From TrEMBL:
GO molecular function: 3-isopropylmalate dehydrogenase activity; magnesium ion binding; NAD binding
Keyword Nucleotide-binding assigned: no
Gene that specifies this protein: leuB
Protein name per the record: 3-isopropylmalate dehydrogenase
Family annotation (NCBIfam families): leuB (TIGR00169)
GO biological process: L-leucine biosynthetic process
Organism the protein comes from: Halomonas lysinitropha
Length: 359
């Protein structure tokens, strides 16, 4: 059956990087991937056209799609919008929530060719392969009540950090199953020395553990986890954590791989429908210059093939093509090093496409 794929370029560098990833998707189509690709507006681009960051039409298209490829949303153009519900980022959170995309997989893999581009010494990251499993539709990004209000003659801002047992259990199961398929080590990251919500988080993870006797479960406070990630990252295999901690830790983990431009992601619901996007944002500081790294977005297409379209061989072909291009010494500016050739976003797309075809 033909599957629908929605591409949401978004804002800033979003259109530049999705353009390259879409070429790879088209090459997969030409090789027999049975998909129909269509586009939509999300974020600032949607706000400018329709006055809403998530127009009803986009939501309908998203619901009908098996896979969604997103660039990124947001930027200074929309930062002055005071109503948060109208901000580009709210459009993204809306898709995640409305489609129930609670399971966010963020693999931090250091390609051997980029070990020297990492912020850490090459020996600390060589062979690094961490899977961060982040809860994506709950926690403090969604908790109610929230707001800014007058209290005792001054304004007070507040958000609510809330998780139900069922939400914790659901993401816990994703992480335990992931650990079973990998090295059978799972580290749950929380702040259970301070936050009740994460005392519950830890308790639920412990309760699940006997159902996965082959998985070794450990716990770590988030502040220590941030430190350990940059001290000795290879101690981790699968990491499970809540929405905000996962957001922050995955950006930190990105620098172990050489650049935030290298980290893809999958956001999945229970039926395997997924949104696929690079972990980075819309990078307004480099938008329009043709220098953004498209590899995280291209690798997100590979994740779509693996997790939503049941096409693992084609996914591997994309990942191998990326490896080949790095072997050939091609680098966008963010991962450039001595002895490599710095290329533009489009040239990187050309090279991955050529390698994909030649494999
Ligand atoms: N999923 C999404 O749509 C996300 C959207 N955002 C939004 O993006 C906007 C910018 O946010 P920032 O905090 O600046 O984070 P950012 O991730 O957009 O940029 C941080 C730094 O990384 C660099 N960078 C990011 N992606 C890159 C790539 N592919 N190639 C080379 N360099 C890259 C940027 O140039 C910048 O110096 C904000 O409006 C924010 O809300 C932020 C994170 C995720
Ligand atoms: C709108 C933000 C929560 C997006 C973000 O930073 C992310 O998902 O990594
Ligand atoms: Mg983030």
């Amino acid at each position: 059956m033909t599957q629908k794929i929605l591409v949401l370029p978004g804002d800033g560098i979003g259109p530049e990087i999705t353009a390259q990833a879409s070429r790879i998707l088209a090459a997969c189509q030409a090789r027999g991937l049975d998909v129909e690709v269509f586009e939509g507006l999300l974020g600032g681009a949607a706000y400018d056209a329709h006055g809403e960051p998530l127009p009803a039409e986009t939501l309908e298209k998203a619901k009908a799609a098996r896979g969604i490829l997103l660039g990124a949303v947001g930027g200074p153009k929309w930062d002055k919008i005071e109503d948060l519900a109208k901000r580009p980022e709210k459009g993204l959170l809306g898709v995640r929530k409305q489609l129930g995309l609670f399971g966010n997989l963020r693999p931090a893999i250091t390609y051997p060719q980029l070990a020297s581009a990492s912020s850490l010494k090459p020996e600390l990251v060589a062979g690094l392969d961490i899977m961060i499993v982040r809860e994506l539709t709950g926690g403090i990004y969604f908790g109610q009540p929230r707001g800014i209000e007058e209290r005792d003659g001054e304004r007070v801002g507040f958000n609510t950090y809330v998780y139900s047992e069922s939400e914790i259990e659901r993401i816990g199961r994703v992480a335990f199953e992931m650990a079973q398929k990998r090295s059978k080590k799972l580290c749950s990251v929380d702040k259970a020395n301070v936050l009740e919500v994460t005392i519950l988080w830890r308790e639920v993870m412990e309760r699940l553990a006997p159902e996965y006797p082959d998985v070794e479960l450990s716990h770590m406070y988030v502040d220590n986890a941030a430190m350990q990630l940059v001290r000795a990252p290879k101690q981790f295999d699968v990491v499970v954590t809540g929405n905000m901690f996962g957001d922050i830790l995955s950006d930190a983990a990105a620098m172990l791989t050489g650049s935030i431009g290298m980290l893809p992601s999958a956001s999945l619901n229970e039926s395997g429908q997924g949104m696929y996007e690079p972990c980075h944002g819309s990078a307004p500081d480099i938008a329009g210059q043709g220098i953004a790294n498209p590899l995280a977005t291209i690798l997100s297409v590979a994740m779509m093939l693996r997790y939503s379209l049941d096409a693992p061989a084609m996914a591997k072909r994309i990942e191998d093509a990326v490896g080949k291009v790095l072997d050939d010494g091609l680098r966008t500016a963010d991962i450039a090093a001595e002895g490599t050739r710095t290329v533009s976003t489009a040239e990187m797309g050309d090279a991955v496409l050529a390698a994909f075809e030649a494999l």
